[in-house]
């Protein structure tokens, strides 16, 4: 189990530091029902990660994804494909990043967050976790790594739980500041949001490129061994 955790912790950290969900939760916390909406957004995020990871566990179960305690060929091909996608996506993001970070613009849908109902806030957290093109590949890769390691079901679930917890730390930090930070919380979260907005593209570009190279190496290792 230790080796699997070593494989997925980097992927979980990549999801955790994704700037857009962090910006989204800060905007959610600034709504009139910030406390409720922040919790609902975070719960939706956790369920989205867990559901997508569980789907991959079901697909990459030990009986079908691991042969003689070695990942099956299709698992290596999946990691190779995801790694290639992340490397190319990261390179494109870097090329398209604003030359002046102060000129960075947030996605238009974020301007409507303050008008969302609690149910829609929950759905937004779910979607950003499970359907986001920037986070879903990392969760899929983590689920494949866990499911292909030949672990007992209990250890698979525990490994996925660790992944989800680490991947949620980026949201739990703003939520904790909001709930416990008192009068200074608003200014602190505003500074975090501004920094994340300015450097969102550059951070994700570097992150995806590095994680993509790792997955490429993992995939090649599975296919040639």
Explain how this protein is built.
The protein has 225 residues and is an all-alpha fold. The protein contains nine helices and two strands. Helix content is 77%, strand content 2%. It has a two-stranded antiparallel sheet with strand order 1-2. The chain starts with a helix and ends with a helix.
Give a quick rundown of the structure.
The chain is mostly helical.
Strand order of the largest sheet: 1-2
The helix-strand sequence is HHHHEEHHHHH
Query: Main sheet, how many strands, which sense, barrel?
Result: 2 strands, antiparallel
Distance between the termini: 21 Å
> Globular, elongated, flat, extended or rod-shaped: what is the shape?
globular
Oligomer: single chain
Given the helix and strand composition, which structural class is it?
mainly alpha
What is the typical, i.e. mean, pLDDT?
Answer: 86
């Amino acid at each position: 189990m230790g080796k699997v955790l070593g494989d997925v912790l980097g992927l979980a950290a990549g999801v955790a530091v994704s700037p857009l969900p962090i910006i989204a939760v800060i905007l959610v916390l600034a709504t009139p029902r910030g406390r409720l909406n922040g919790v609902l957004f975070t719960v939706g995020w956790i369920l989205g990660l867990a559901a997508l990871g569980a789907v991959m566990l079901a697909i990459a179960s030990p009986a079908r994804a691991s042969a003689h305690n070695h990942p099956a060929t299709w698992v290596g091909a999946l990691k190779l494909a995801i790694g290639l996608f992340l490397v190319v996506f990261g390179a494109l993001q870097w090329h398209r990043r604003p030359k002046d970070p102060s000129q960075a613009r947030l996605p238009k849908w974020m301007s409507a967050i303050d008008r969302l109902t609690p149910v829609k806030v929950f759905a937004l957290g779910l979607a950003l976790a499970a359907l986001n093109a920037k986070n879903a590949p990392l969760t899929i890769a983590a689920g494949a790594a866990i499911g292909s390691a030949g672990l007992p079901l209990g250890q698979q679930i525990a490994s996925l739980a660790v992944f989800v917890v680490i991947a949620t730390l980026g949201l739990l930090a703003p939520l904790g500041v909001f709930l416990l930070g008192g009068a200074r919380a608003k200014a602190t979260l505003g500074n975090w949001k501004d920094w994340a907005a300015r450097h969102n593209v550059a951070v994700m570009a570097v992150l995806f490129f590095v994680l993509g190279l790792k997955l490429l190496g993992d995939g090649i290792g599975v296919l040639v061994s």
